Known about the structure:
Its main location: other. The protein is mostly helical. It has helices spanning 2-23, 54-80, 90-126, 140-167, 178-192; strands spanning 32-35, 41-44. It has 5 helices and 2 strands.
Amino acid sequence: xxxxxxxxxAFLLTISGWVLVSSTLPTDYWKTCVTDSTGVSNCKDFPxxxxxxxxxxxxxxxxxxxxxxxxxxxxxGLVGMKCTKIGGSDQNKARIACLAGLIFILCGLCxxxxxxxxxxxxxxxxFDPSFVAQKYELGAALFIGWAGASLCIIxxxxxxxxxxxxxxxxxxxxxxxxxxxxxxxxxxIHNSVPDKTSPKHFDKNAYV
Length: 208
């Protein structure tokens, strides 16, 4: 029962993390945005994907890989959970759940690496006095990506530990009480049979 509850918690954590990682991609915080004095932001897409810098292409590839891994991890996690009727025996479901955990850990690592690489580039340019081009700051998409990556890693670790719990099959100890039962039955039979031996009467002449 505890293993099933742990798998449900792990599944909820990983799905939440995957949704957070996926939500970072369609936001405007990855684009070039300009905000005027009235608070209105104007964002535009990058003109060409091939003309992007190498670190932006690497971050984009890592985030897309994280989203794809999270999708496959959610499918394997759903199959490997004990509360579902698919996946075969408990041992097979435990292996599938462990595989889902590894996939979610890779998903979290890809998202964590992509967000950290982008944040490192932004902070290094921001604090570089010789950098004279436009400087950027850390946006909400990075923090959302870090939070989703952390949830995926935590939930995937719980999925991996579930195979160790399922491998410990409980063993019941049976005590052999055959001899005791036989002895008890014989004792009951012996006690139930009345003593038919007639009592001995001694005459007064028997004593000297």
